[in-house]
Amino acid sequence: MAPCQPQEFLFVPVGGKAKISCVSNGTLDKLFRISWYRRTWRVGENPELILDWGEVTKGHKYNCTHTERSSSLEINNVKEEDSGTYYCAHFIYMSLIFSNGTTLIAGDSFTAKSSVHLMAPPSSPLPNTSVQLACVASAVGYMVHISWNLSGTPQKGRVVAMEEPGGTLTFLSYITVPRDTWYQGASLSCQVRFNSSSATAVHGQATRQEEVQFAHVCSFCIRSVLTGVILLALALAVHLSWTCP
What is the number of structural domains in the chain? Predict the structure, then answer.
């Protein structure tokens, strides 16, 4: 009986208030408890407990309200460092069951050097049974939200991130699709939301990679970023992933 959060992502201006909702399949009581956690962009970082069951406030920062089948977390005076993915979690029968999560982005992560690029396989078919595609958002100020669409159907990607020497971030979201689906002409797009601004990178069977929208950078630079982020992901001993039924 996993809880579910209807808001996939939420944009809030710095200094504003965020309200994140969580819906339960069961009645909330002492045996079916809800707690709130947060994860930042740092891959492999354990979720941080924000509010435990029974806590309705923590200082002037967090407030929580419960109904019979729902819970809402309020975050006051939102700052950039409050950005992250917030999860409600059921504690029942000695087990902790996480929801799908809501990504909160505070302020605007877009910078003058931000760019979005879609990495796709060559036009000639590969022998593999599947192909992996990656969407890279570089020179990002803080968290972003990356979404995928494959021939009109939303797709869920896996996201990793790394910090660049200048203090900006690079996010990489990747998905795996069947080989035949891709080479038979499927259209694919990834969208990166920075908050008030957004950029879209599109790549399809009939689209050249040079035509991907937004700034163009050399393929060597993209490969370097891609390689670094993927190596970071492979080095993880644990990769947490929660889904909403």
Answer: 2
